[in-house]
C-alpha cells in the first residue's frame, strides 16, 4: 500500500512539491513508503564524505573480559584490516577510535598506511600511502578519544577493497574494535610491516581494531546514507567470512551500495554501516547470567545504546544526510535474560528520540520494520515478545513519524507463517537473514526515493 503522509504529518515537509513515490518490491513483497521531507547533500565542489565506517564497540569494563584478552592484545605487531569503499574519491583520511570503555588506556600507533588491496594480505603495487597525524608518523589516541589522519592523495574507486595497516608497539590491549566484520583480516608476528607488499601473517582475525572510518574527497555532489541498526544491519548471519573480491560483502547496506553504484543518478551517495550486533535502543550492553564465554562476548560486542551513540555513529559521519533506522528487536528479545524488560511504548519512545535527534541535525530519517524471529530460542522469542514486535511495526508503518518507511518485515517474512522468516531468507537461526535475505532487503529499496531524501 502506497501512502503520501507529507500533507498530514505533524512535521512540516522540507520540499513544497508532493508526489507519490513507488517503492520497488523485493522477491517476496513490496514495501510501503511515506514521504514528508528530504535530507542534505554537499555543495557540488570537492567535499569529504565517509566512504566506509564501522561503529566501535568493546567492553565497558575491560577487567570483566579477561577471558577475551588474547585477540585484542598486541606487542610489536602489525594489523592489516580490509574494508570496502562505497563511493570513489581522490584523497583519503582514516579515523582511529579509542572511545570505548569506562577507563581505556591511551593507544600508541607507531606507523600507519593505507593502500588498495589486491588479494589476501597483499596490496596493489604503487598504491601504498604512509599516513601522518598532524605531520607525525606516529600518534597516541587518548582515552575515550579518536584521531583523524592527515589527507593523502590516492585514487580510490567505488566498491574497492582498501588495506589499512597499523603497527602497534604495545604491549597494549585494544578496547575499541568492531566484532562482526565477516571479513578476514591479518595480524603479523613481531615487527613493523605496514609497508609490506604482502604482510607476513601469523594469524587471521575477524576484527577491525581501532579503525572506525575512512573518508574520501569526492569530486561531485555527494552525501552519505547511514544504516543505523543491530546485527541485521551489521550483516551477521551465515557463518562464513569474506576473504577476497569478488565475494560480495554480506549485509543489506553493502548490497545497497552496489545498487547505488550501478545507477548513474545515485553514484555519489555513500552508504555507511553503523550496525552493532546485539545493540539496543534503550540500554547499553549488559552481562547476562550465568557468566560464560558467550555472555562475555555478547557484553564485549553489543556496545552502548543506540540513543547514546547516535551523535558519534550517525551525526558525526562526514556529509551524512540521511539515516535508515532498523532497531528494537534486541530491546524486545534480550530484556527477559537481562532483567531489563521493556514495553512496545518504550521502544516507540526511543524511536521518537532518534527521529528528533536526526531532524535536529538536518538529516532525513527512514524507519524500517522489525523482521520476524519466530523459532529463535526462548526467552528471546515468545508470544508476548511477538506482540511487542507487531505493535512497534504497526507504529512504524502508520504513525507518519518518519520521512519514509521500508517494510523489511514484508520483504523477508514467510507468507504462510508471517511470524517467521521465509526459509530461503533464513540464515538458519531464525533471527538473522541469509545472504539471499540481505540481498532481497537491499533490492526492496527504491533508489529514486532514497536519492530524493538524501540530496537537496
Radius of gyration: 21 Å
Specify the number of helices: 10
Terminal-residue CA separation: 26 Å
**Low-pLDDT residue spans:** 1-40
Mean pLDDT: 87
Largest sheet, described in full? 7 strands, antiparallel
CATH homology superfamily of the largest domain: SGNH hydrolase
How much beta, percentage-wise? 25-35%
* CATH architectural category of the largest domain: 3-Layer(aba) Sandwich
Give the assembly state of these chains. single chain
- Total domain count: 2
What is the level 1 CATH name of the largest domain?
Alpha Beta
Structure description:
With 456 residues, the chain is an alpha+beta fold. It has 2 domains: 156 residues; 238 residues, SGNH hydrolase (Rossmann fold). 21% of the residues lie in helices and 25% in strands. It has 10 helices and 23 strands. The strands form 6 sheets. Strands 3, 6, 7, 8, 12, 15 and 16 form a 7-stranded antiparallel sheet that branches. Strands 1, 4, 10, 11 and 18 form a 5-stranded antiparallel sheet that branches. Helix 2 crosses helix 9, helix 4 runs parallel beside helix 6 and helix 6 packs parallel to helix 7. The N terminus is likely disordered.
Amino acid at each position: 500500500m502506497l501512502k503520501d503522509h507529507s500533507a498530514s504529518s505533524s512535521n512540516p515537509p522540507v520540499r513544497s512539491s508532493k508526489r507519490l513515490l513507488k517503492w520497488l518490491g523485493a522477491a517476496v513483497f513490496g514495501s510501503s513508503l511515506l514521504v514528508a521531507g528530504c535530507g542534505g547533500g554537499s555543495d557540488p565542489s570537492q567535499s569529504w564524505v565517509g566512504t566506509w565506517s564501522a561503529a566501535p564497540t568493546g567492553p565497558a569494563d575491560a577487567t570483566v573480559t579477561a577471558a577475551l584478552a588474547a585477540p585484542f592484545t598486541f606487542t610489536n605487531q602489525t594489523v592489516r584490516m580490509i574494508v570496502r569503499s562505497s563511493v570513489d574519491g581522490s584523497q583519503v583520511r582514516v579515523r582511529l577510535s579509542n572511545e570505548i570503555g569506562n577507563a581505556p588506556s591511551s593507544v600508541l600507533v607507531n606507523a600507519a598506511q593505507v593502500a588498495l588491496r589486491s588479494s589476501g594480505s597483499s596490496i596493489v603495487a604503487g598504491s601504498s600511502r604512509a599516513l601522518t597525524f598532524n605531520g607525525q608518523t606516529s600518534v597516541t589516541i587518548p582515552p575515550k578519544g579518536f584521531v583523524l589522519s592527515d589527507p593523502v592523495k590516492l585514487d580510490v574507486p567505488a566498491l574497492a577493497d582498501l588495506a589499512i595497516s597499523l603497527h602497534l608497539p604495545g604491549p597494549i590491549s585494544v578496547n575499541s574494535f568492531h566484532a562482526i566484520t565477516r571479513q578476514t583480516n591479518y595480524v603479523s608476528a613481531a615487527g613493523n610491516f605496514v609497508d609490506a607488499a604482502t604482510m607476513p601473517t601469523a594469524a587471521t582475525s575477524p576484527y577491525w581494531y581501532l579503525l572506525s572510518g575512512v573518508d574520501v574527497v569526492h569530486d561531485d555532489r555527494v552525501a552519505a546514507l547511514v544504516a543505523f541498526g543491530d546485527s541485521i544491519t551489521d550483516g551477521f548471519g551465515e557463518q562464513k567470512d569474506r576473504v577476497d573480491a569478488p565475494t560480495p560483502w554480506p549485509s543489506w547496506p553493502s548490497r545497497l551500495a552496489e545498487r547505488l553504484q550501478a545507477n548513474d543518478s545515485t553514484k555519489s551517495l555513500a552508504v555507511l554501516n553503523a550496525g552493532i550486533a546485539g545493540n539496543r535502543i534503550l540500554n547499553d550492553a549488559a552481562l547476562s547470567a550465568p557468566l560464560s564465554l558467550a555472555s562475555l562476548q555478547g557484553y564485549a560486542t553489543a556496545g552502548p545504546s543506540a540513543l547514546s551513540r547516535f551523535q558519534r555513529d550517525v551525526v558525526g559521519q562526514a556529509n551524512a544526510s540521511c539515516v535508515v533506522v532498523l532497531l528494537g528487536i534486541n530491546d524486545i528479545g534480550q530484556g527477559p535474560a537481562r532483567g531489563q524488560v521493556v514495553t512496545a511504548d518504550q521502544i516507540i519512545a526511543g524511536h521518537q528520540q532518534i527521529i528528533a535527534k536526526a531532524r535536529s541535525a538536518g538529516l532525513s530519517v527512514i524507519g524500517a520494520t522489525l523482521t520476524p524471529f519466530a523459532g529463535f530460542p526462548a526467552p528471546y522469542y515468545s508470544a508476548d515478545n511477538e506482540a511487542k514486535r507487531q505493535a512497534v511495526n504497526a507504529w512504524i508503518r502508520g504513525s507518519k513519524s518518519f520521512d519514509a518507511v521500508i517494510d523489511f518485515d514484508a520483504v523477508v517474512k514467510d507468507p504462510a507463517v508471517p511470524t517467521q522468516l521465509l526459509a530461503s531468507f533464513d540464515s538458519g537461526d531464525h533471527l538473522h537473514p541469509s545472504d539471499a535475505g540481505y540481498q532481497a532487503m537491499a533490492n526492496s529499496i527504491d533508489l529514486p526515493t532514497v536519492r530524493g531524501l538524501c540530496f537537496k
